[in-house]
Amino acid sequence: MPELPEVQTTVDGLNRTVKGRKIVGVTTTYASKFYAGKDEIKNPQFFRKFKRFVVGRKILRAERRAKNVLLHLSENVTILVHMKMTGHFVYNRLVPFVRLDFTLNSGKHLYLSDMRKFAKVTLVETKKLDDSPHLKHLGPEPLEKSFKFEVFKSQVLKRPRGKIKQVLMDSKIVVGIGNIYADEILWHSSVHPLSLAGKIPEKNMRLMYKAIKKILAKGINLGGDSMSDYRNIKGEKGGFQEHHRVYQKHRTRCEKKGCSGVLHFCPKHQRLFQ
What is the percent of the chain with per-residue pLDDT over 70, rounded to a whole number? Predict the structure, then answer.
């Protein structure tokens, strides 16, 4: 599933390519009886409403909240997209598994490719976004200036008996972190993923906080992680998968200097705090 760096890379790409363009047409191949009555475009009845609301409106800008892509349109309408497991936007390049196709006034297209059909696409009034059921439960953004160490620590300690990897991946605690970046963050901060959040020493908690900032920023700089299906707006792979230190490196030697441990999680330097 795309995590914070992949979603931010997508948003940056959308702002470069479709910002200021008008949507003149939209089609979808999503349709499922299981979504009847739901406010998602997989419900054909809702898609008719969706089409009526978005066609003719200008894309003002793209924004990210947690793992959601927000396409803000004119007249107080926002398209909210959660790309889930295999979704990614591609600009004017026809790729496999296109489920949603926006035609723009430039004559070009913005496609949503989604092999497994898990992505969520809906509409929200822009001024009501923060209070919508899609966003109101979310925790703080880890790359915001307001996300200080004290904020991070207090959020983590809301689940003192939780295993730290699961706590980091809880979007109510901190947003945007999934399997890949959680593994890398914990490796860098010398914390075993099964450690209890409330037992982690202050020193390691600070290392974890710094690792979150550093590794997520590095993921963005490298254009995200394409170990799985993620592609950027040009249909290209990101580069973070070339810099993994621990994720999917089972039974390989730990790369930390002076450490002789063997992964998946290094039993030498990643301490288990219980």
Answer: 95
